[in-house]
């Protein structure tokens, strides 16, 4: 009798270990778990909206298909690619997902062009629309948002040495104090940093090179000079006064921007918006946000594929040739800057938004560094990504750093 009792107890213990206690998930393959799919907006999913059961650890492939005039924004819930319409989830437990769709919109004025002539040197700007642009906050997926609330003009190209020099000469007579005189691209002419022989020389055949060897402080004071020269309102002020002295470190680093039509450096959000904008073009894995399509943050601006980083992230295969079509960087620049505007433009008609030279931005990215964007002729492909933001001290100078101007549309 005692032997039978112990054999029965052993059998019961084994049965409970295999099946699990009542109401407790056993965790064994084959146990059923539930997928709940919902839709927000107009569109369909595969599997269809609703609830269905799967075996534990099943891999479920998902697809979101927007209705006509709508776009897919993102999946809410545990998926491998939240902003891709093609994703997957692993059924380790019950899963709830929402496929979010929004209506498409058009911006007919995006890319509209205006032209300016200053001292016999012309330059052009394109209109970028107010919108909420997706940002790559987690370093992988474009899940963040950055809002630009006002339309703005942005220069087609990086500021050329010809334009820089012509305004610089006028500015001295108008009461401005330059800090650094600038260089045409990366050709130093000899000498030691930062006193290269070609610094400040009159432009010649190199006039369409981007200006380099200018600091953040030089750039914002020059923007004020350009504004004043063209009859616009200089927007950089310190203690209410127009900022005119690039050598005044404290005033430049603590300058404020007033409302006005003058030229300035872009904010991070403006720069990213202009680099990523695609409008109604949903091709090449575009991300949908605020009714518009955008290049993913791991693309070079205007490119058709992720940049090649020397390795492949899950679901991302880089493309060297796609980046070379739109950007000068270490793989194709032959070790020097190039004239602006030689590569393919992006959807707004902007050139070199990735590559050639880094571009100063307005925002602080740390207590001691201002933003720079876009990558450069002597840098690797990673910096070409539209989601990349670097930083440098506001007095930093180099042959791979220049800038591009914007102006708020009035």
User: How many domain regions?
Assistant: 2
Rg from alpha-carbon coordinates? 28 Å
Q: Enumerate the strands of the largest sheet in spatial order, edge to edge or round the barrel.
A: 3-1-7-5
Intertermini distance: 97 Å
Q: CATH homologous superfamily of the largest domain?
A: paralog of FGE (formylglycine-generating enzyme)
Separate helix tally: 6
Portion of residues in beta strands equals 25-35%
The assigned structural class equals: alpha+beta
Corresponding CATH architecture of the largest domain: Alpha-Beta Complex
Task: Just give the CATH class of the largest domain.
Answer: Alpha Beta
DSSP E strands, number: 25
Anisotropy-based shape: elongated
Average pLDDT works out at 91
Q: List low-pLDDT spans.
A: 1-28, 312-316
Helix content: 10-25%
Largest beta sheet, briefly? 4 strands, mixed
Could you please say which CATH topology of the largest domain applies here?
paralog of FGE (formylglycine-generating enzyme)
Protein described:
- With 410 residues, this protein is α+β, with helices and mostly antiparallel strands.
- The chain folds into two domains: 74 residues, no CATH class; 298 residues, paralog of FGE (formylglycine-generating enzyme) (Alpha-Beta Complex), CATH 3.90.1580.10.
- 16% of the residues lie in helices and 28% in strands.
- The chain has six helices and 25 strands.
- The chain has a four-stranded mixed beta sheet, with no helix packed on it. The chain has a four-stranded antiparallel beta sheet with strand order 8-9-12-25. A four-stranded mixed beta sheet has the order 23-22-21-24, with no helix packed on it.
- A hairpin with a 2-residue loop joins strand 8 and strand 9.
- Helix 2 packs across helix 3.
- The radius of gyration is 28 Å and the shape is elongated.
- It starts with a helix and ends with a strand.
- The N terminus is likely disordered.
């Amino acid at each position: 009798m005692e032997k039978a009792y112990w054999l029965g107890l052993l059998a019961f213990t084994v049965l409970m270990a295999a099946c699990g206690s009542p109401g407790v998930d056993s965790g064994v393959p084959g146990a059923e778990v539930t997928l709940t799919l919902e839709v927000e907006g107009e569109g369909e999913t595969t599997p269809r909206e609703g609830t269905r059961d799967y075996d534990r650890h099943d891999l479920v492939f998902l697809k979101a298909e927007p209705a006509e005039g709508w776009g897919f924004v993102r999946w809410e819930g545990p998926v491998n690619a939240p902003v891709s319409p093609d994703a997957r989830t692993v059924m380790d437990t019950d899963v709830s997902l929402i496929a979010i769709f929004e209506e498409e919109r058009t911006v007919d004025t995006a890319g509209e062009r205006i032209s300016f002539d200053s001292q016999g040197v012309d330059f052009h700007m394109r209109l970028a629309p107010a919108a909420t642009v997706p940002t790559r906050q987690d370093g992988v997926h474009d899940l963040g948002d950055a809002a630009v609330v006002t339309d703005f003009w942005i220069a087609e190209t990086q500021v050329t040495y010809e334009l820089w020099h012509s305004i610089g000469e006028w500015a001295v007579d108008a009461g401005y104090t330059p800090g650094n005189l600038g260089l045409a691209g990366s050709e130093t002419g000899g000498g030691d940093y930062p006193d290269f022989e070609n610094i400040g020389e009159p432009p010649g055949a190199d006039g369409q090179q981007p200006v380099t060897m200018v600091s953040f402080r030089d750039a914002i004071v020059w923007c004020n000079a350009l504004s004043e020269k063209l009859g616009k309102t200089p927007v950089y002020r310190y203690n209410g006064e127009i900022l005119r002295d690039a050598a005044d470190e404290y005033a430049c680093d603590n300058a404020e921007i007033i409302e006005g039509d003058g030229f300035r450096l872009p904010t991070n959000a403006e720069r990213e918006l202009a680099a990523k904008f695609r409008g109604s073009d949903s091709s090449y894995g575009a991300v949908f946000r605020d009714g518009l399509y955008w290049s993913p943050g791991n693309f070079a601006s205007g490119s058709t594929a992720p940049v090649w980083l020397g390795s492949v992230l899950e679901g991302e295969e880089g493309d060297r040739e796609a980046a070379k079509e739109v950007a000068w960087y270490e793989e194709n620049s032959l070790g020097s800057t190039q004239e602006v505007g030689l590569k393919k433009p992006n959807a707004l008609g902007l050139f070199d938004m990735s590559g050639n030279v880094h571009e100063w931005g307005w925002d602080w990215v740390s207590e001691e560094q201002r933003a720079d964007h876009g990558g450069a002729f002597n840098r690797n492909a990673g910096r070409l990504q539209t989601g990349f933001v670097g930083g440098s001290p506001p007095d930093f100078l180099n042959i791979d750093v220049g800038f591009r101007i914007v102006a708020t549309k009035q």
